[in-house]
Records
---
Amino acid sequence: MAKTTTATGLPKGFRDAGQGWPELARLPHPPHRLPFLGDVLGASRHTPLQDTLRHARALGPVFRRKAFGKEFVFVWGAREVADLADEARFAKHVGLGVANLRPVAGDGLFTAYNQEPNWQLAHDVLAPGFSREAMAGYHPMMLAVAGRLTDHWDRALAAGHAVDVPGDMTKLTLETIARTGFGHDFGSFERTRPHPFVTAMVGTLGYAQRLNTVPAPLARLLLRGAARRNAADIAYLNSTVDDLVARRRTAAGDGDLLDRMLATAHPVTGERLSARNVRRQVITFLVAGHETTSGALSFALHYLSRHPEIAARARAEVDAVWGDAESPGYDQVAKLRYVRRVLDESLRLWPTAPAYAREAVEDTVLAGEHPMRRGAWALVLTAMLHRDPEVWGADAERFDPDRFEPGAVRSRAPHTFKPFGTGARACIGRQFALHEATLVLGLLLRRYTLVPDPAYRLRVTERLTLMPEELRLRLERRQAPVGTGASAAVPGPPSAEPRCPVRRAGD
Ligand code: HEM
């Protein structure tokens, strides 16, 4: 395996912000900074993001935090974030959290450095796998997996049990990406304990996250046992994927992502993905393709259960658009515009991948104020950008899907809603996630009334992504709508979704 860390134990390419920001001292930082340890007083290892949001409110749109001798610069002001979206001057930075995933995902799409040739190759080969046509092909598979979820929830309802929302959404999204991506079934809904592949994946993600919070020089010492388990987890993931790929080489699948990876040559150069790179992409898609969507669905279900008037409006839309059709067609999902706004508003308050990093590709001045040297980087705090009162109003903390009504969207500056990142390295799975989540919310709203536990208060767990902690809901079965007919779509303009899932205007 290629060496991925430096002599200090930090991921290759990691640069302290002190080296790139000539006027770093001008940036505010939290009070009570300790020598070497930095701004750690009052910080929790379990909620780094929520701690940072607290500091963001007090310190303003650009600030820094120091942890274990390393400076990190955070940016959340709308003007500064829009400037960082300028692809001529800035690009993705493979920051500490992402670089710690390199031992498992290597130069897969998410963890590749910008200059690695395999990024462009894989992007060009795989982007058509997220086109409208490809998505229409995944739709029946998504429906089949959603059917397993509703069977599971029907059983919970019959037994009088509340449902474990984050747990079940994670099963759903994992099965969906495994089925549509690789024709694989982990049997998540049928198992009482997770599939060993899932355990290994969770183990290796947990290890990467622990590396973010343990000072690099100590990590080798403190995490020796965990590092051994991590190596075993990675070996297991690799061999399972290699077996899957070997089987597929002998018999093609039904046009899923893996078929594309194996069979598609680059449209211009004719080059193909290497076997090693295919392995990394399969693991990348399994990881990137499920927890984020699972969190988004879970937050949306939380808010729907707490706002019966919003749930009623969303349900009325589902009934009108889908009528009594047994299964909604592909086009009927894009027509659920209000359901989609519920999802957008959930991703505004809790963008489940809550930050992304950008680096200067040349010496430049951020937003005309902060000099940055080439290679200097900053973390965009999406979760705070999405709460900026100057953009979202004094009631920015309130859940209100009408913020995504088309007129309201047009009135806001570009780059103020960035749950899927920005530019060439924005999320390739955006349309996939939105189609899957809108479909599933529609199916659940149509079938159940969601009854919250009145004692529940939203707490957010931070793993690599965000999730509502211990969210349980009780269900009541709704009567199927009658007489509206599948064709009774709510009239409206054709969907404004562009065809390319990656390069959107405003990205
Ligand atoms: C609500 C769900 C999702 C959210 C919030 C989300 C968010 C993001 C964000 C913020 C990035 C950019 C990261 C960066 O700049 O470092 C990203 C990249 C990526 N996402 Fe997603 N994602 C979601 C669903 C998915 C799905 C379903 C897939 C796959 C089917 C996926 C695959 C990827 C990949 C491969 C990248 C790397 C793209 C590249 O650099 O070329 N994501 N995602």
---
Amino acid sequence: MEKKIYIVKRISKGAENINTYWIAPEDGKLMDYRPGQFLMLFMIGPHGTPEPTGRPYSIASSPTNRNYIELNIKMLGHFPGRLATLKEGDRIAAMGPMGIHTFEEAQMPEVTLIAGGVGACPLLSMIRYAAEKRLRNKITLFYSARTPADVIHCDELKALAAKDPNFKPIVTLTRCEPTAMSGMACEAGRISPEMLRKHVGNPAAQHYFICGPAAMADAVAAMLEGMNVTPDRIHKEGWG
Ligand SMILES: Cc1cc2nc3c(=O)[nH]c(=O)nc-3n(C[C@H](O)[C@H](O)[C@H](O)COP(=O)(O)OP(=O)(O)OC[C@H]3O[C@@H](n4cnc5c(N)ncnc54)[C@H](O)[C@@H]3O)c2cc1C
């Protein structure tokens, strides 16, 4: 797979400590991808060519958007420190799309998305795709965040939920009381079988996408298996 040059079109703040980058291919030819996939990003070295080592970042935009790709990056660590030096108009390289955990609307009428922190990024692509295409699939999002300020694109999620009865976001706050969240359903503590049953009609009938820290993703997948969800319905991506 080849590395392709992109231009950084826009940089904004997606949430606390999260930068949103909009990148577009220099040659104007945006690749096709599915909601849930990611790119490998590479900085451009001093000679104008991509560096050999990159990092994976999930595509948060919908594949129906043919103008740019949106990435949301937690600005902590080595590579994000380098991304922080980028300005609008700069060049960056990317390879992809990659990843097999993709939302397939025809086979997944009911989907439950479970995000831990920045793990919400690939799930945002699925939510935006379903909204853009006005799909009838039922999508429930459980989004674990420390505080309301950590919820990426919180206002957009609220607006989508207000418009579409098939999309139901639930935030679970780990460092605040649920009353700290306004305009969106909120629960306290970690996702539990009771919480799942309360918000999702029939847990065994769902397709699950879990994305977040590896320990969290493993724990949620084990919980689902304990609830008799078959492994083919559990799509898990653990980072770190
Ligand atoms: C499929 C996937 C999708 C992801 N999507 C997102 C996303 O959408 N948003 C997001 O914020 N994060 C995402 N991540 C996490 C992201 O790829 C990085 O891991 C994260 O940004 C932290 O980068 P890091 O360089 O600090 O460390 P790491 O990625 O943990 O470091 C990985 C490697 O870099 C080496 N390394 C660390 N420091 C240095 C250094 N100073 N010099 C040279 N090498 C070094 C380490 O030895 C290690 O081998 C995703 C991860 C995966 C696997």
